[in-house]
Design brief:
176 residues; mainly beta; 2 domains; 6-stranded parallel barrel; 1 helix; 18 strands
C-alpha cells in the first residue's frame, strides 16, 4: 500500500476546508510530501467527516432531526436538531432556523438562534444574525456576526437568566 492510497482512504467522505482561501477544496501532496490545498498551496486546512449531507440543490422547510453529523450546502428553514452531533454549514449553505447541536461550524449564512453544547465557529465566509449560546466561540477576522453571545453553561440551579454568574456579550461585527 502506498502512502497516497492511505491518504485517499483516510480522507474519503470528508470535507476539506482551507483556512487561507476559506473554501471547500481538495488536497494535493507538495514536493516536500506534505498535504496542501490544491487551489492555493496552503498547509492550513482541516477536514470534517460527512455522514449526512443537504446538497446545494436541496431546500428543506420544517423540522430537521438528524442522529449523525450533518453538512448543509443547500437551504434549511425553521428548526435543526442534532442532539450530540456536529453541524457544518458550508459556504453555499443558507439556514434560517433555530439550531441545536453539539458543535456548529458556519462558513455560509445563518439567520436564527444557535445553541451548541461545545463550540460555535464562524469562518471568514460565514455570517450569523441571531443569538448564540455555547461554552466556547470562535469568530474569524472578517466573519460577520450580529446578535448576542452567552458563553455561560446553563446552571442546574434555579438562578435566573440575569444572575451575576451569567456572561452575555452583545456584538455587532461585519467586514467592510
Amino acid at each position: 500500500m502506498t502512502s497516497s492510497s492511505g491518504v485517499k482512504r483516510s480522507l474519503k467522505d470528508r470535507v476539506i476546508l482551507c483556512a487561507n482561501c476559506d473554501a471547500t477544496r481538495t488536497l494535493s501532496v507538495s514536493t516536500s510530501g506534505n498535504l496542501v490545498c490544491a487551489a492555493c498551496g496552503s498547509d492550513n486546512w482541516m477536514h470534517l467527516p460527512i455522514t449526512a449531507n443537504v446538497k446545494e440543490s436541496v431546500s428543506i422547510k420544517g423540522e430537521l432531526t438528524v442522529e449523525e453529523d450533518l453538512t448543509i450546502e443547500g437551504c434549511v428553514e425553521e428548526r435543526i436538531e442534532l442532539k450530540d452531533h456536529n453541524l457544518w454549514i458550508g459556504p453555499h449553505g443558507k439556514v434560517s432556523a433555530k439550531i441545536h447541536a453539539k458543535s456548529v461550524i458556519v462558513a455560509g449564512e445563518v439567520v436564527g438562534d444557535i445553541h451548541a453544547g461545545e463550540i460555535v465557529e464562524i469562518k471568514m465566509s460565514g455570517s450569523v444574525r441571531g443569538n448564540i449560546s455555547c461554552p466556547r466561540i470562535s469568530i474569524v477576522d472578517g466573519a460577520k456576526f450580529q446578535g448576542r453571545i452567552n458563553t455561560e453553561k446553563r446552571a442546574e440551579t434555579t438562578s435566573g437568566p440575569h444572575s451575576p454568574k451569567t456572561r452575555i456579550f452583545r456584538l455587532s461585527r461585519s467586514a467592510s
